[in-house]
Specification:
Elements: E1 2-5, H1 20-33, E2 38-41, H2 54-69, E3 80-83, H3 87-97, E4 101-104, H4 114-121, E5 125-128, H5 146-163, E6 171-174, H6 183-191, H7 193-197, E7 204-205, H8 211-217, H9 225-237, E8 242-243, H10 248-263
Parallel strand pairs: 1-2, 2-3, 3-4, 4-5, 5-6, 7-8
């Protein structure tokens, strides 16, 4: 899954796309590099990020999804995910462009209508673990057992989501690396990622250039490509199904190497 940020404040500066020309360049590169899904986001979820109005988020998402769908090459058929917690953004996107995947960082907590909306529209849905909001989440990283509590929360929410009528085949879960978790808690969660995978749903992991790399190594996100690939390998080893990344070409190389390794 390739990250396509239609923002000007995402934590990794090189991933920001504020205009249509920049978007087209980013989309073309991701498609050429082998992305399976393009994840369009108009609302930055970096720690401390400010809220933005619904209409501004819609302007950005509309521009991003439109930049993909207007293409005349095979990229126009590339599956799209929208990174949003607002059900209204989901409805508008589906009405204008057709079915998409929904990547909800709040796991339904950000909008009480979200689960009913994705169930009604029968959309693939990424259920992520998080506490609070991007502005408050880092003050909510207190756990007795981070692995068990994340698994319990995802399991309970998945059951409630299915009760809303969404097919189990549409559900993907995400342990939420970096969201309301310390560096140490992130590594504990990664060490036991197989516990999340055993919940019975495909697992998405977002590790790309995150603070669990940069803070540990005292580097900037621009220097965290190597660390990202190491963690992606480990996520694959434990059963992750989707890697959400900034760097598709390098991650595809990691996937190819891993697949060759496990065949031998």
């Amino acid at each position: 899954m390739a990250i396509v940020n239609v923002t000007d404040d995402s934590f990794y500066a090189a991933s920001r796309n504020a205009g249509c020309d920049c978007l087209q360049t980013t989309i073309s590169r991701h498609i050429a590099d082998g992305a399976s899904i393009l994840d369009i986001g108009g609302y930055s979820s970096r720690p401390g990020a400010a809220d933005i109005p619904l209409e501004e988020e819609w302007r950005r998402v509309d521009m991003g999804v439109g930049a993909v769908r207007c293409r005349e090459d095979a990229g126009a058929d590339t599956p799209i995910s929208i990174d949003t917690f607002r059900s209204e953004i989901v409805r508008r996107t589906v009405e204008r462009y057709g079915r998409v995947m929904v990547n909800d960082i709040t796991g339904g907590d950000g909008d009480e209508r979200m689960w009913q909306t994705v169930a009604e529209l029968d959309l693939p849905y990424v259920l992520m673990h998080m506490r609070g909001t991007p502005r408050t989440m880092q003050q909510l990283a207190t756990y007795d057992d981070v692995v068990q509590q994340v698994c319990d929360d995802l399991q309970a929410k998945a059951e409630r989501l299915l009760a809303c009528g969404l097919s189990p085949k549409r559900v993907v879960i995400d342990p939420g690396f970096g969201f309301a978790k310390t560096v140490e808690q992130n590594y504990a969660l990664l060490h036991h990622l197989e516990s999340v995978c055993r919940l019975g749903f495909p697992v998405l992991v977002g590790l790309s250039r995150k603070s669990m790399i940069t803070r540990l190594l005292d580097i900037e996100p621009k220097d965290a490509l190597c660390g990202t690939q190491v963690l992606c390998w480990e996520a694959l080893r434990q059963g992750a199904s989707i890697l959400r990344v900034h760097d598709v070409r390098e991650t595809m190389a990691t996937v190819r190497m891993y697949e060759t390794f496990i065949r031998e």
